[in-house]
Every structure is written in structure tokens, then in C-alpha cells.
Amino acid sequence: MLKSETDWEGWRRAARALVLTGVEPDAVTWSVGGEPAPLPDADGGFHVPRALVSLASQAIQARDADRFGLLYSLVWRANAGERLLENETDPDLSLVRRMALSVRADAHRMRTNMRFLAVPEDGGTHFLGWYEPRHFVLPANAQLITRRFSDLSLSIVTPDGAAHWDRSSLLFGSGLRHVEDDEALQAWWEAHRGSLLEQATPDVSVPEAESLDEVPRPPDRPALGPVVLHTKPDPALLRSAKDASTCRRCPLYESATQIVFGEGPPDASVMFVGEQPGDQEDTIGRPFVGPAGQIMDRAMEEAVIDRRTIYVTNAVKHFKFTPRGKRRIHQTPEVPEIQACNFWLDVERTHVRPRLLVLMGGSAARAVLGRSVTISRERGRPIRMQDGQAVFITVHPSFLLRVPDAAAKAREYQAFVRDLNAIRALMTAD
Ligand code: URA
């Protein structure tokens, strides 16, 4: 009797004791959901190749009722001296390999497709992720994800259960069968947060997280800073964002984790356009949540611009980077990539119809004006385009992060705040 669908430690303990006391696979019935039955005392050597243990730790997460017995029969045969892993045609081993493959694919989907909704909580932000897994991949992947975002408070909600991370402990509790939209997820969280956390418990029996890592693991990321409040999405914009998620207009989709569409109120009077998502935006699926977003948020606060009232997007919607060891180094998008992505910027502009477009940096200016722009020469004042659209050019916030000298950095930051003050004046002008 295993405690849960992913009771890896329980299964290992039982398999070892049963093999060592000679209990044949056909004599064992495996089930889930109760207190473990007493196991026979077992002494002695137990010989199973490491690769088989690793395969089992993945296959045990498969949503297949027969997996425990199947895995036990493989362990039984390996312990009896059969050179199982060398037999490419063994039907049971093939089945387990297919299970493990499907689990790894699901784990990969979970890590790359899950978007986090930022909800305000206790003066900070809690991130809520929703995923409907094909297999029982939550416990092992919650470990990986929380290790990567150790400084964030977050929950991952699935129909099988939910994982909660409060920056120090990982607890598992009940999940949510179906989520209509972000608003429903947030409402459920706000209504049940107290009891969900109270009932949640640690899981000491999670399958090894490392054993999932045959799929490429995104590099370790620094923790995120404060992230924008997520505003209620507009259905038409949401549909466009969904269409954009399968965009193949340029090759950048191939290495990016996901598309990062713009966000903000669909009737915002101002649209801020950056260059492209960075490393953290690519992981979370939201624009300007990493270091550039944090400095932009700080400057906006000083200029008394409420980020919840503006629409924020990028000229290019996929992260362009070169891998360097564990890190992903930002690369400036090329003109054809900017031109290809203009399709989506136009979609956003058509939906939102902002009175003012703020172009932050050269790529945004190139996307909207169709020419190269010397930012220092054209920044700081509104310009009217031929079609009547008002635009305002300023620096990209990541430029502020790159200024090496502290005094120059402070000057540039103040110049950015001045530009934002001018933008606020334009926002509030009749
Ligand atoms: N830089 C950008 O241009 N956009 C982002 O979303 C983040 C960093």
C-alpha cells in the first residue's frame, strides 16, 4: 500500500523488502491511498542497475495503474541477474521506457508552458501557476521549479493537487479540478488560501528531481523582483495572445521558452514598447518582470505612473539569446525579426488604440517608425507619425543597468524619470 501516486520512497522500500524475501511479482498487489502494509524483514544484497532505478523514478510518475507492478517485475528480474537493460526488445522494458519518455515530455511541457499569475498578498506578491498534467509530475517538478525561484512565494495548482512554496518549505495539498480563467484561479486562491495552506503537508517521498533532467533544463535563474499586478485580460487580446503562442513568423520561437505577449488594460491610453523579453520574462511569460522591469517600475513610481493603467509590450515577442554555460545571454534582435513581429505589435495597437506610444530604445523605435533612431537625439518630446499616432521616444530601461559609472548612472536614471514625467503630463492632458 503506497501513500500516494508518487510514493517513490514507499515503492522502493517495498520493492527491496519483497525482492529480498523472495515474493514473486505475481503475488504482489499494489495500491495507493492508505497506510503502508507491514513489510517483511529483509537483509542482504540487492542488485539493481542505477539506470533502472532512474528509469523507475520517472516511470512511477506515469498515469498508469499497472506501473508499480510492472516496475517491480523489472526489478525482480534484474536482481535475479538478467541483463535487462541490454535487451532492446523486452516488451515490459519497452513499455516502461515509453512511460518514462511520456513523463519527461509532460514535465518539459509543465516547465515551459506554465504561466504565473501575480496576486497581491501580505504586502508582497504570490505567484499562482496552473497546469493540467498528463501524468503525476507535480511533486518532482514543484521541487525543481521552487529551487529555481527560491526567493518567490508561489503555488502550482493542478487537478491532482497543489504545491505551495513560501520561500522556505514546500507543501502539498488539494488542487482544483478545472480553471476557467485567471480570474477564477485568483478567486479560488483568495477564498481558500487559509485552509489550503493549513491542510498542506510536506512530501518526503518525491521521486528524484535530477532524474527528470534528460530534457534540457533551463539555466538557474536569479529570483524575481516585484512583478506587476495582473489586470483582467480582454477576451479579444487574449485570443490574439493565444494565436501568437504558435507564431512561426521568424525562427526565434525555436529556442525561446514561450511567447511573451503584452499586458495591461485593453483601453489603456498609453502603450509602452520595449525590445524583447529577457531571461526572466521568457520563463514567467510576462513582459518587464526582471531587472529592466524593476528599474522601470521604480522610475514609474517616482513619476507617479501607475503601471496597472498602462499597456506594456515588446517589439519582439520571443527571447533571443546565446547560451553560455548555464546562462542565456541577451542578443539584440535583427531588423527582419523586428519586422516579422510587427504583425503582433500591430494587432495590439489595433485592439488597444493608445493615444500615446512610448518607444523605449532603438528596437522599439525601429519597429514603430521603420527607421533607425538615435535615441539621444530624438528622445524626450512627443512626435506625431504620418497616421496621426503620437509617439514618445526614450531610453530602454536596461540601458540604465548597463551604465558603468555610478554618477552617470544616477544622471541617466533621473533623465528617464524626467521623460516619464513628461509622458504622465501627456497622459493626463485633455
Ligand atoms: N527588456 C525588454 O525590452 N522587455 C522586457 O520585457 C524585459 C526586458
Write the layout of secondary structure elements.
Blueprint: H1 8-20, H2 50-59, H3 67-79, H4 91-113, E1 116-121, E2 124-130, H5 138-148, E3 153-158, E4 161-165, E5 170-173, H6 182-199, H7 235-244, E6 270-274, H8 279-284, H9 291-302, E7 311-314, E8 321-324, E9 327-330, H10 335-352, E10 356-360, H11 362-369, H12 375-378, E11 382-384, E12 390-394, H13 397-402, H14 406-428
Parallel strand pairs: 2-3, 6-7, 6-10, 10-12
Antiparallel strand pairs: 1-2, 3-4, 4-5, 8-9, 11-12
Helix pairs in contact: 2-3, 2-4, 7-10, 10-11
The structure holds uracil (URA).
Write down the Rg.
26 Å
Could you say what the CATH architecture of the largest domain is? Answer: 3-Layer(aba) Sandwich
The count of domains is 3
Strand portion, in percent?
5-15%
Largest beta sheet: strand ordering:
1-2-3-4-5
Largest sheet: 5 strands, mixed
Bound molecules: uracil
Tally of alpha and pi helices: 14
Query: Pairing-aware structural class of the strands and helices?
Result: alpha/beta
Q: Which overall shape is indicated by the principal axes computed on the Cα atoms?
A: elongated
Q: Could you name the CATH class of the largest domain?
A: Alpha Beta
Helicity, as a percent range: 40-55%
State the CATH superfamily name of the largest domain. Answer: Uracil-DNA glycosylase-like domain
DSSP E strands, number:
12
Detail the poorly predicted runs: 210-231
- Report how far apart the termini are: 71 Å
- Following the backbone from N to C, one meets helices and strands in this order, namely HHHHEEHEEEHHEHHEEEHEHHEEHH
Average of per-residue pLDDT values: 87
What is the name of the CATH topology of the largest domain? Uracil-DNA Glycosylase, subunit E
